[in-house]
Amino acid sequence: MQDELACNAEVQKSKVKKVLTPRTRWLVNTNFAGNDSNVLALSNYSQHDWNRGMRVVFLLMVTVFITSPTSSLGDHPITSQWAIAIHGGAGSDWLKLDTNEQAATKASLQQALTTGKSILAEGGNSLDAVEQVIRHLENDPIFNAGKGAVFNSAGGHELDASIMDGRDRSCGAVAGVTTVKSPISLARLVMQDTRHVLLSGDGADQFAKVKGVELVDQAYFWTQRRYDAWQRAKQQQPDDHKGTVGCVALDRNGNLAAGTSTGGLTNKLYGRVGDSPIVGAGTFADNKTCAVSCTGVGENFIRNAIAYDVSARLAYKQQPVEEAVREILTQTLDVTKNGQGGIIAVTHDAKITMQFNTGAMARAAADSSGLLVVELGE
Question: Do residues 175 and 281 touch, judged by C-beta distance below 8 A?
Answer without folding.
Answer: no
